[in-house]
Specification:
22% helix, 4 helices, single chain, alpha+beta
């Protein structure tokens, strides 16, 4: 049986030069991003970020958020074009995120290609959670806030539950 584990050489070979450059500039894989704005503005924005789902090396994911400055955003998550993966591997998940109480995160999603729908409630998962209200609002304009939200979304899709997280998937 072939060994399908990732080696550093295999990881490097499956990455585009742009992703390798972003990792080198960031100093480590998990800090690397591509296309992340310096300041978040209302509307749609797309970026690539690294996620560790625990079963292999960190992989690049692409996410598009559409945010109107409120307490909700819609999103589309997929493989990143910066990983040298066949476009046939694309299976975007789409969803909605809400943090109306400023503390908890509620996600609802559909993963059409995998015939999975689901939802998750993540206590303390709201962007800026734990900060005073005015700081939490300011945090929504900070790029790192959206990278962390993207990681919570991908973690939920790959069923990496956080303490206290509840949810359900439907197939």
């Amino acid at each position: 049986m072939p060994d399908h584990t990732w080696s550093d050489d295999a990881a490097s070979d499956n990455r585009t030069p742009a992703l390798k450059r972003a990792i080198a500039e960031a100093g480590d894989e998990m800090s690397a991003t591509i296309g992340l704005p310096d300041k978040i503005k209302p509307g749609a924005f797309t970026f690539t970020f690294m996620v560790d789902v625990g079963d292999r090396r960190p992989v690049a994911n692409e996410i598009t958020f559409d945010w109107d400055e409120g307490w909700t955003a819609t999103w589309v998550q997929d493989i990143s074009p910066y990983e040298d993966i066949s476009p046939g591997s694309s299976a975007p998940a789409r969803g909605w995120a809400s943090w109306r109480n400023g503390t908890d995160l509620l996600l609802a999603y559909t993963w059409f290609d995998l015939e999975v729908d689901g939802w998750a409630h993540i206590p303390g998962g709201a962007p800026g959670s734990g900060l005073p209200a005015e700081d939490a609002e300011d945090a929504l304009y900070e790029p790192h806030t959206w990278v962390e939200l993207g990681r919570l979304i991908v973690g939920t899709l790959f069923e990496k539950k956080l303490p206290g997280q509840t949810g359900q998937t439907f197939q």
